[in-house]
Amino acid sequence: MNTPDTAVRTETVGSTLVITINRPKARNAVDAEVAGGIAAAIDELEANPALRVGVLTGAEGTFSAGMDLKAAARGESPAVAGKGFAGLTEAETSKPLIAAVEGYAMGGGFELALACDLVVAAEDARFALPEVKRGLIAGGGGVIRLPRRVPHHLAMELLLTGRTITAARARELGVVNRLTAGGGALSAALELAAEIGENAPLALAAVKRVVRHARDDAEPEAFSAQRREIQQLLESADFAEGARAFAEKRAPEWTGR
Fold first, then answer.
1. Burial of 228 (0-12, 13-18, 19+ CB in 10 A)
2. Residue 62 burial (10 A CB sphere; 0-12, 13-18, 19+)
3. What is the pLDDT of residue 236?
4. 1 near 52, Cβ under 8 Å?
5. Euclidean distance between CA atoms 141 and 91, whole angstroms
6. Which pLDDT belongs to residue 4?
7. Can you give the pLDDT at residue 210?
8. Catalytic site residue 123?
9. Beta carbons of 81 and 32 less than 8 angstroms apart
10. Active-site entry in 123, 131, 195, 248
């Protein structure tokens, strides 16, 4: 149940689950409660067939400052077993996730954005992986994911310097899908989520699985996995409905079967 002091709030908007990190006084830094809350929200998204897309954001103009160092010093873990930092960075999700970034996405906050499938950011947002300045590395997926998203040398520059970049630069690098005016990231993310949510849920999940195969497997194995996915989709009720809807010039009514 959401209350004003709930560390992670959830709200359903159409077929989208909005997940909000709600520790603005701590710049939405991730402690054990936040990690557990995000993990629970992702479980809710995955379990509810009426939900098609998740949007992750932060309360009151900040996405997330990353790991709560004070909580870590008290012995709290910002990770969830099997799901990684913040209950998300190592989770394998079947439904699309969009990060709606306002303010700062620093360290683990940037890694949360990288764990999402799409990123919408306000023009005044800032991104950084500054762990090397503290004697660490970006261990919540930053060192692994950033070089897969941007050219090697550009990723290494950010990882080795810990430099903060603007949302515009993140867009140039291909990390950010859309830029908005300040305060507009969530609205733009919801528009994108609604567009995605109009599509067949089985096909959306298949896209994510095939993309993972393309990332992790050699091409022959990836194509083999893709063939299996396509065959299952061809046998689904949703594919039959999509074909009927196209012929009848109407919007399809997806059942996820």
1. middle
2. buried
3. 98
4. no
5. 11
6. 74
7. 97
8. no
9. no
10. 131
Per the annotation, the verdict on 92 as an active-site residue is: no
Catalytic residue among 44, 111, 195, 253: 111
- Quick one: tokens of 2? 């959401």
- Find the angle CA(123)-CA(165)-CA(21) to the nearest 5 degrees: 65
Query: What pTM was estimated for this model as a whole?
Result: 0.96
CA distance 102 to 184: 8
The rounded distance, in Å, linking the Cα atoms of 174 and 224 is 29
pLDDT of residue 1: 65
- 148-154: which pairs have CB atoms within 8 A and are 24 or more residues apart? 148/215, 149/114, 149/173, 149/174, 149/175, 150/174, 150/175
Long-range contacts at 141-150 (CB < 8 A, ≥ 24 apart): 141/84, 141/85, 141/89, 141/90, 141/111, 141/114, 141/115, 142/107, 142/110, 142/111, 142/114, 145/111, 145/114, 145/115, 146/114, 146/175, 148/215, 149/114, 149/173, 149/174, 149/175, 150/174, 150/175
- Averaged pLDDT, groups of 10, the chain, 257 residues long: 86 98 97 98 97 98 96 94 98 97 98 98 98 95 97 98 98 98 98 98 97 94 97 97 96 95
- d(C-alpha 183, C-alpha 165), whole Å: 19
Q: Which pLDDT score is estimated for 45? A: 98
Token match 């799409």: residue?
Answer: 118
User: Which among 136, 8, 239 has a CA at the least distance from the CA of 252?
Assistant: 239
